[in-house]
Amino acid sequence: MQNRRFMNVLLILFLLASYSTPIFASATVLPNLSDSIERSMIQPSVTINGKNYSFQGMLPTLIDGKTFVSTQLFEHPDIQADITKFIDNEYPHVFFSHFNGVLSIYPDKSDYMLIDDNVDSEDPYVWIDWKSPSPYLSGNDIMVPLRAIAERIGISVGWDVATRTAIITTDDDFRDELESPEEWEDWLGMKPIEMDDTSGEEITEEELNEFLKSNGLPVLDSRIIDKYTAVLLHIEEEDGVESLTLEYVDRLKNGSLGWSMGFGMGDNGDDVQVKRSGQLVSVGMFDQGLKKQFSHFEVSYKVHDKRVTHTYDMAGKQGMFFDIPEEVKGGEIIFFGKNGYTFETYFW
Predict the structure, then answer these.
(1) Is the distance from CB of 115 to CB of 101 less than 8 angstroms?
(2) Which helix (H) or strand (E) holds 167?
(3) Measured between alpha carbons, how far is 102 from 336 in angstroms, rounded to an integer?
(4) 142 Rama sector, left if φ>0, alpha if ψ -120 to 50, beta otherwise
(5) Is the whole model's pTM more than 0.70, yes or no?
(6) What is the average pLDDT value for the chain, to the nearest integer?
(7) I need a surface site. Which of 43, 149, 311, 345 has the fewest CB within 10 A?
(8) Which CATH number describes the domain made up of 205-347?
(9) Domain ranges in the chain?
(10) What is the per-residue pLDDT across 102-130, written as a single tens digit (0 to 9) for each?
């Protein structure tokens, strides 16, 4: 069971790289949220295997006769879908990983992507029409049609008209695939804490340094980029090829620190690698670059049509981060080494 879940997570990461810019089908209209608010006095209820589900955050609502719920509902121990949200993204979306398949869900879109890892096919990616109002953003989650998703992953949904209750029921075959409640709680505890969760402790430099020491990773530079996330810079070697790599560390829901994901960055030549990630630019030296004994580098870019130049000390360092303003589209870097040697490259 754990192996299958980890395979689904790998699929999620693959999709993140492959579908970071979705191709949208026909435009759809967001649900009338004022209608949802008006209906809040008669909001539907949800039961899961006979027990009332207590919503933490966005409450369910009825839209065109369909019950919409937060994707977080599907992490219930009787369902055990692994929800990975990318809300602070140019294209907000949710990856919904389950042993009966993986869904990629975008708000304000008429269809969703199904990846069925139980089917042996060269093209397991299928776009499926919702046949209902589209999912929509609400707070830090996406509200989705309950029945469409539940039935897609093998769950029965009934409706009690008198009490306005959606009745979720799982059968024996479905339950046989689940982990124990304790195992599932442990799994959820290893997920990153969400930015809007105020209950977590901020990552400290001391804690981050202790984490790096305990993991034995040779780090060129590190940076805490928000209260629950840090990024590390190191050089990774595979099959004799070195690559500048970013590794992310998150505050987990169980309170500890844990690895999030890593990105290899490609190269600019034999001397150095320079890559941008948001407002951070990474610089790394390889064998040829180290032999040039670079002492410093100059960074030049435009901000509001004004040329800005900064100089950074590189002596004795193999890699480092430096910051740039968010609005900067790109710039150039010139490295200065021994005997007047220079190396020029760009970032964007």
Answers:
(1) yes
(2) strand 165-169
(3) 49
(4) beta
(5) yes
(6) 85
(7) 311
(8) 2.60.40.730
(9) 2-189, 205-347
(10) 999 999 999 999 986 655 556 678 899 99
